[in-house]
Amino acid sequence: MRDDDALPAKADEYGRKVSPYFDIADKEAKYKADKLFKRLRRKVGHAIGDYGMIEPNDKIMVCISGGKDSYAMLDLLLSIKRSAPIPFTLVPVHIDPGFPNTPEGVVKRHLDRVGLDYFILKRPVYEIATSKVPEGQRLCSICSRMRRGFLYSTAREIGANKLALGHHRDDILATFFLNLFYSGIMKTMPPILRTDTDDLTVIRPLAYCRESDLTTLAKLKGYELLPKGLCGFGENEERAAMLRMIRQWEKEQPKRPDIIFKALKNVVPSHLLDRNLFDFSAISQGPRVK
C-alpha cells in the first residue's frame, strides 16, 4: 500500500467477515434487496461457470468506477467467494482520473464499509486527455484507453492475474449494435479475454445481469455513487442511443433483448458470409437449399 493510497479496511483473507448487505432499516426493502441479490448471484455464478472466469488461487483486481455496476459486482463476488469451493483473492481498485468537481471520499467511504484491503490511485487521465484533444471535442476514446492502460499496469504492480470489469448484459448488447451499425463488424464485449500481452485475463462477471436489476439493487441498498458526466461531456452519445433502444425494446417486447443476447451465444458460421469462419468454397454441389 503506497503512501498516497487510501488506508485499507481490515478483513480476513477470504472476506468471511464481510456482509454483502449494508444496513437497510426498512424490512420490506431488505427483503426485496435480498431476493434480488440472490437472483443476481445465481446469474453471476452461471456466467463464471460457463466461461471459466475464476480458477483456484486467482488474484482478481476488481475495478471500481464509483458506479452502481462495479459496486454490485464487488458485493456479488464477495458473496460467491464465501461459499466457493476454491480459494481466490479480491482486491478492489479505483482509478481517480482527476475529473473536476469530483466529490471527495465517495468511493473511499463505500470501500471502507465493504471491509477489504483496497487501492485508490490518482492518475492524470483528465489532464493528459484535455492536453491532447482539441477544445470542445469529446474525450471518451482517449480517456477510455488511458484508464484501461492504468488498470492493466496497476494489476501487474499488485500481482493480480485477472481484472473484473462491471459490464452487464445491456453493455454487451449495446457494444454489439455499435459495431454492427457504425463499424460493419459483428463483435461485442466477450465475457472473458486475454490482453494483447497475454499476461492478464479480463473477466466480466455481470455478463448475464440486466442493467435494470442492477439499478434497482443500488437503490435498495443505498449505494453512494459518483455523479455521471464529471468530465463535462456526459455519456457517449452513440452508446447512450443504443442503450435507450434496448430499454425501449424491453418495455415494448420484454423478451427481445434476452433473445438477441441468446443469439450471440448461438452463432452458425455456415449461415453467415464470413469466409474466414467457414470454407464456402469447399461445399460440394448438391440439391438447392430452399
UniProtKB/TrEMBL annotation:
EC assignment: 2.8.1.-
A biological process from GO: tRNA thio-modification
Reactions catalysed according to its record: cytidine(32) in tRNA + S-sulfanyl-L-cysteinyl-[cysteine desulfurase] + AH2 + ATP = 2-thiocytidine(32) in tRNA + L-cysteinyl-[cysteine desulfurase] + A + AMP + diphosphate + H(+)
Gene3D superfamilies: HUPs (3.40.50.620)
Keywords noted in UniProt: 4Fe-4S, ATP-binding, Cytoplasm, Iron, Iron-sulfur, Magnesium, Metal-binding, Nucleotide-binding, RNA-binding, Transferase, tRNA processing, tRNA-binding
InterPro entries for the chain: Rossmann-like_a/b/a_fold (IPR014729), TilS/TtcA_N (IPR011063), tRNA_Cyd_32_2_STrfase (IPR012089), tRNA_thiolation_TtcA_Ctu1 (IPR035107)
Cofactor dependency: [4Fe-4S] cluster; Mg(2+)
CDD domains: TtcA-like
Protein residues bound to [4Fe-4S] cluster: C140, C143, C231
Domain tRNA(Ile)-lysidine/2-thiocytidine synthase N-terminal: 59-222
GO annotations of cellular component type: cytoplasm
Enzyme class (EC, first level): transferase
Domain of life: Bacteria
GO molecular function: 4 iron, 4 sulfur cluster binding; ATP binding; magnesium ion binding; sulfurtransferase activity; tRNA binding
Annotated motif PP-loop motif, positions: 65-70
Record localization: Cytoplasm
Pathway noted in the entry: tRNA modification
Cofactor note: Binds 1 [4Fe-4S] cluster per subunit. The cluster is chelated by three Cys residues, the fourth Fe has a free coordination site that may bind a sulfur atom transferred from the persulfide of IscS.
Main localization of the protein described in the UniProt heading: cytoplasm
Quaternary structure, from the entry: Homodimer.
Protein function: Catalyzes the ATP-dependent 2-thiolation of cytidine in position 32 of tRNA, to form 2-thiocytidine (s(2)C32). The sulfur atoms are provided by the cysteine/cysteine desulfurase (IscS) system.
Family: Belongs to the TtcA family.
Note: The thiolation reaction likely consists of two steps: a first activation step by ATP to form an adenylated intermediate of the target base of tRNA, and a second nucleophilic substitution step of the sulfur (S) atom supplied by the hydrosulfide attached to the Fe-S cluster.
Name this polypeptide is given: tRNA-cytidine(32) 2-sulfurtransferase
Organism from which the protein derives: Candidatus Anaerobiospirillum pullicola
